[in-house]
Amino acid sequence: MKRIISLILAMGMAATMVACGNSSNNSAPQAAEPTAESAAEQPAPSGQDGGNISAAGVAIDQIILGEDYTDLSAEIRFKTHRTDIMDTILQGYADDFREMYPNITVTYEGITDYSETMTTRLSTPDWGDACMIPTTIPLTELENYFHPFGATATLSEDYNFADNRAFGGTTYGLPSTSNAQGVLFNKAVFAKAGITDIPKTPDEFLDALKKIKDNTDAIPLYTNFAAGWTMGAWDAYISGSATGDPDFMNIKLPHAKDPFANRGDGTGPYAVYYVLYEAVKRGLVEDDPATSDWESSKGMLNRGEIGTMVLGSWAIVQMQEGGPNPDDIGYMSFPISVNGTQYATAGADYCYGINKNSSDEVKLASMLYIKYLVEKSNFDYDQGGIPTVKSHEFPSTLAAFDGIDLVADAPAKAGEEDLFVNINVDSEVSLNMDNQHVISIVEAALTGSATLDDLMADWNARWTASQQKYGAGA
Amino acid sequence: MKSERSVKSLRPKLSIKQQIMSMRGQRIIITVAFMLVPLLLLFLFTYLPFFKMGQFSLYEMRYIGKRTFVGLQNYADVFSRNDVFGSLKLSLYYLAASFIQLALALYLAATLSFKVKGGAFFKGTIFFPYLVCGIAIGFIFKFFFTRGFVLDTVLGYLGANLEILPYWLRDTGVNNIMLAATSIWRYLGQNMVLFIGAIMSVDPSLYEAANIDGASGWNKFRHITLPGIQSIVVLNMILSISGSISAFEPPFVITNGTFGTATYFVMMNSLAHEKQKVGLASAMAVVLMLIIVLVTLFQRFVSSTFLEEDKNGYTFSERRAMKKRADARGGRGV
Predict the structure, then answer these.
(1) How far is A290 from chain B (nearest CA, A)?
(2) Are B33 and A13 in contact (CB < 8 Å)?
(3) Most CB atoms closer than 10 Å: which of A148, A158, B70, B101?
(4) Which residue blocks in B148-263 are alpha helix, DSSP H?
(5) Is B260 within a domain?
(6) Per-residue pLDDT tens over the stretch B284-310
C-alpha cells in the first residue's frame, strides 16, 4: 500500500513539474513580445460572445451612469497609491457606488512606493483590475497593458488632459485629479517678514527667503529632503512654469542642445534648479535636511514655522488640514517670469487605468466605477485639483492662479512618443522618474563639492550622448 | 566500474514491476520522491531566477518594453563607472566595523560564558537588537541621529556644545561610520551568542587543568578558548565580510544613500527600480556574486591550509614548529 502511495506521490510531483514548466512556457512569450499578440488582438472586437456584455466596444463617454448595466455583477480589485485615505474616503466612494450598482464590489489595495512596485507587478498579466497608471510605462506600451477608454479626440471634448495617457489616438487612462504646479507659502510669515509683493523671479524669491530668515523664526524654504520624492517634485516646474511653452517637455526637450544650460534670463530648467541650489547654499533651508520629516512638515507650515515649500497644488488641502490655521496657507506661481509673464505647469496626476487581461464584465464594471470616480465622486475638487470633467468648477484653492496661464505639456509628435523616455532613461538624468538627480543638487550645495554649472554640464553631456544614441541630435 | 558491470550481467533479467518492487528500485523511488519537492523549490526560486538574472544582464532593458541584446556592455559599465564600482569602497567601513564587532563579541562571550552576576540579563540585552527588524532599527537610528535629538542631547549632558558636534548623517566624514555603528549594535548579540555556544563546547577539564597549573585568565583564553573555537571565529569572519560587501538596510532606510552613503546594494536597487536600468543592475548582482564566491574560496583556502589538520593530523602551526625543530637540528649538525 505504502509503495503505491509513494509511487502516486512521485507521479503527482512529476506532473506538477510538467504543469509548472508548461505554464511558464506559456507566459514567457507573452511577457517577451506582447506587441505581436496584442496587435493581433486589437482590431478584433471581442463582442462575439453572443448576448454577453462586451466592454471592448464601449467608450467611457457613451455610458449613462446609474442607468446602463445596473444588473452587472463583478468584483474589482483596485490598486491605489493613496494609502492614507484608502479605508476612509476611497472606501466611501466604493460604498456610494454600490447604491447605484449593488452587485459590483470594489476592493482597494494600497501600495506604498507605488510607482516602483506597480511597474514591477504590471509585468504579470493578473495584477488586479484597475489601478493608477504608473508614469514609467512608455505611452507606446499602454495598449499592451490597459483597456482603451475611447478615442482621444472625442474624450477631449468632455475631459481635461484626456491625452495624458493616450497613444495613437486612443486614450487609456483618465486623470484622477490634475495639478497646477506652484509654491506653498504661509501668508502670516510673509507678512511678518515684510514681503508685500509676491516674488516673480528667482532672485526676488531668494531675497524674500532671506527676509524670512532675518525677520522671523521660520525656516524660509523647507526642502523635505529626507522624504526623497519631494525632491523629485522639482522636475514638474521645468516645463510650463519655467518656459511658458507647452511644446517644451515632449517635443523640444528630446531634440534640444544642452537643455539644462544657463539661459541667462532666469528661465528654463536651470532657473528652477538655481532656486534650489542657491537657497541651500545660502542657508535658507532647514538646518539638517538629511533628517527632515514629511508628516510633521505639514503642521509646521500651517503653524508658521516654515515659510515656503515647493509642491504641486495637491498639497494645499493637506497643508490646510495640517494644523489650526488653514487660512494662512497661500499658493503662488513658481517665481519665474518669461518676458514678464508668469506661467504654471499644469497636468494630470495619476490616471485611472483598467487591466486589459481582466474579463469583459470586470472591465466594464471598472469603467463604470472610474466614470463614477471622475464625474460623481468630486475627488478632484476635494483634493484641490483641476477637475477632470471640463464643465466642473475649479476649487477655491486655485484662486491664486487667476491671471496666470496654465500650461499643459503637449503630447509628443507621432512616431516620437517614446523618444523622451528613451533618452531620459538612458542618460540617467531621470526627470520625473527618480529623485537622485535633484538630491545631488542639494548635496552639492551643502558640501560645496560641485557648482550648479558643473552639475548641469554633466546632465547636458549625458543628455547629448543619449540623444546621439537614439538619433535625436540637436 | 568494470567489475560492477560484470556483476550486473550475472543478475537475472527482471521485469519492470520486479525492478520497482526490488530494494534498489524502492530506494530510487523514495529518494526521488523525497528530493523532488525541495529540488523543485530550489530550482524554481533560486536557480531559475538567477539564470534569468544572468540573462537580463546581457540586455539593455526596462521592466516594461522591448529588450535589446548588448552582450557584455553592462559588465563593462559596472567596472568602468566610478559611481558603481567605487561604491564597493564603502564596504571598507562596514568591514572595519565587523572586525570591531567580532572583537567585542569575543570579549563579551569569553566573559559571559563563565559565572557572572546578571549574566543572563546582559546576554539578553545584548542579543535583543538582533530580534528587531532591520527597517525598524533604521527608523530608530534616523531619529537617534537627527540634529538636536537623542545623540546630541546625551552628548549635551556630557558638556558637548551643539555647535562643535557634526551633522551625524550629513557630514561625509562621519556618516558612514555612524551607519556602520548601527550594524555593530544590531549584529553584536548574534555573534556573541554563536561564540558563547562554541565556548560551551570546549572541554571543561582543560580549564580545570589550567587552573591547577595556575594559568591567568588571559592565558586560558589565548591557549584554550581561542584554539577551541577557531572554526567559529573564521566562520563569523567570512559571514561578516560578505555581509559588509552587501550592506543594505542601514544606508537604505536611514539616509537613502544620500551624502555619499550609497553602498553597492543601494546603488543596485536604485538603478533597477528607480532608473529602470534592469540590465545594468543584473550585471552588478552577478559581479557581486562572483566577488562573494571569490571571498569564500579564499576563506576555504586559508582555513584548509592554516587551521585544519592535514591528513597526518597536524595543524599548520604544528607543522611549522616541527619544521623549525628539524631546521634547528640540521643547523646544529652543520
Answers:
(1) 6
(2) yes
(3) B101
(4) 150-157, 175-200, 204-213, 217-220, 226-228, 230-245, 249-250
(5) yes
(6) 999 999 998 898 888 888 877 777 777
CA gap B296, B265 in Å, rounded: 19
CB contact under 8 A, B146 and A138: no
Alpha carbon distances (Å) from B156 to B81, B162, B167, B311: 42, 7, 14, 61
More confident residue, B105 or B6: B105
For domain A181-347+413-469, the CATH class is alpha beta
Interface test with A, best of B36, B37, B276 (most A CBs within 10 A): B276
Residue A160 — φ and ψ, nearest 5°?
-75, 145
Q: Would you call A8 an interface residue with chain B, using a CB distance cutoff of 8 Å?
A: no
| Domain topology for A55-177+349-377 | D-Maltodextrin-Binding Protein; domain 2 (3.40.190)
Query: CA angle, corner A283, sides to A279 and A288, nearest 5?
Result: 110
The pLDDT, as a whole number, for residue A29 is 36
State mean pLDDT over A67-89.
90
Contacts of B143 in chain A (CB under 8 A): 291
**Domain total in chain B:** 1
Asked if residue B328 belongs to a domain, the reply is no
| Residues in contact with A389: Cβ distance below 8 Å, sequence separation at least 6, in sequence order | A158, A159, A160, A374, A375
The torsion region of residue A333 among left (phi > 0), alpha (psi -120 to 50) and beta comes to: beta
User: Would the CB atoms of B170 and A434 count as touching at under 8 Å?
Assistant: no
Report yes or no: A20 at the B interface, CB cutoff 8 Å: yes
Does position A414 have pLDDT exceeding 50, yes or no?
yes
Substitution target from B39, B77, B275 for chain A, most A beta carbons within 10 A: B275
**Which range marks the domain in which residue B204 is found?**
81-140+175-308
- The residue to which cell 549625458 is assigned: A462
Q: Which of B64, B259, B270 sits opposite A138 (nearest CB)?
A: B64
A282: closest CA of chain B, how far (Å): 17
* Assembly ipTM: 0.75
The Cα B143–Cα B40 span in angstroms is: 44
Measured distance between the N- and C-terminal CA atoms of chain A, rounded to whole angstroms: 79
DSSP at B18:
H
- Pick from A291, A421, A469 the residue to mutate for testing the B interface (most B CBs within 10 Å): A291
**What are the residues whose beta carbons fall under 8 Å from the beta carbon of A450, sequence distance 6 or more?**
A444
Q: Which residue is closest to A36 within chain B, CA to CA? A: B66
Kindly list the domain boundaries of chain A, sorted by start residue: 55-177+349-377, 181-347+413-469
Give B160-181 pLDDT, tens digit per residue: 888 888 888 888 889 999 999 9
Output the pLDDT for position B5.
52
CA distance B131 to B42: 27
Check A6 against B33: CB less than 8 A apart: yes
Would the CA dihedral through B140, B144, B150, B154 be positive or negative? positive
The DSSP code for A250 is I
Contact status of A27 with chain B (Cβ, < 8 Å): no
**Interchain CB contact of A141 with B (< 8 Å):** yes
Residue A23: which pLDDT band, with cuts at 50, 70 and 90?
very low
Q: How far is A130 from chain B (nearest CA, A)?
A: 18
Residue type, A346: A
CATH number of residue B115's parent domain: 1.10.3720.10
A405-408 vs A341-348, strand pairing mode:
parallel
Decide if B273 and A141 are in contact by the 8 Å CB cutoff.
no
SS3 A386: strand
Q: Are A305 and A218 in contact (CB under 8 A)?
A: yes
User: Rounded to a whole number, what is the distance in Å from the CA of B145 to chain A's nearest CA?
Assistant: 8
| A–B CB contacts, 8 A cutoff, strictly below | 102
**Binary contact (B258, A136; C-beta < 8 A):** no
